[in-house]
Amino acid sequence: MNIGILSYKFVNLNHNTLWKWKQLYHNWMKSAELQILTASEPLSLEEEYAMQKSWRNDEDKCTFLILSKETFDTTNDELKSLIGDTNLFLQYEDDQNEKVAECEIMIAEKEYRRKKLGWESMLLMLKYGQCILNLNKFVAKINENNENSIYMFKKMNFNEISRSEIFHEVTLERKVDETWTTWLDSQVDLQIESYK
């Protein structure tokens, strides 16, 4: 299903449309800075394409592409409007009887960083996970040098649960409870629409 999550600043489109943008996405992931921030390895175009295909078909992945609404409104061009993506990697923890998602955000286009687009995109993705996917817990694993992302998730009421010296990574989590859901509702209004 092709769906979009709307905001006054951006539009999130689900991963089914990424086929048009595989070259742009591949070029982003050549960036040493983005590789460090996202804990990614460089891939060939063929490897990137295979990975994107598996993400499209896997039931345990939920990805939305982030488009600048301002650019899209003036150009009506999804490719020119694409600025990043947000992901949920779904799993079920049998011992806790919980549906959990590891969450990620990337604003790849530098001129769109530090404008709260990552903040709002992630809040909407968390709301989507809580309302539509019925998740019980979110986890974020972030490079220890990515202070902006660590700060953002802590501001979203995630709690640090561990640090890995081997992977140079901080793990934060947020259980979905009534207090946090009320806070999340006060931050974003989830609007979902179908698109072609």
Task: List strands and helices in order, with pairings.
Elements: E1 3-6, E2 10-14, H1 22-28, H2 32-38, H3 45-57, E3 61-68, H4 69-75, H5 78-81, E4 82-93, E5 98-107, H6 117-131, E6 137-143, H7 147-155, E7 159-164, E8 169-175, H8 178-187, E9 192-194
Helix pairs in contact: 6-8
Major beta sheet, specifics? Answer: 9 strands, mixed
Give the strand content. 25-35%
Form type: globular
Q: Please tally the helical runs, counting DSSP H or I stretches of 4 or more residues.
A: 8
- Which CATH C-level class is it? Alpha Beta
Low-pLDDT runs of 5+ residues are: 7-18
Would you tell me the structural class of the helices and strands? Answer: alpha+beta
Helix content estimate: 25-40%
Tally of discrete structural domains: 1
Q: For the terminal residues, how far apart are their CA atoms?
A: 10 Å
How do the strands line up in the largest sheet? 7-8-6-5-4-3-2-1-9
Computed Rg? 16 Å
- Order of SSEs: EEHHHEHHEEHEHEEHE
What average pLDDT do the residues reach? 81
CATH superfamily: Gcn5-related N-acetyltransferase (GNAT)
Using DSSP, what is the number of strands? 9
CATH topology type? Aminopeptidase
Report the CATH architecture.
3-Layer(aba) Sandwich
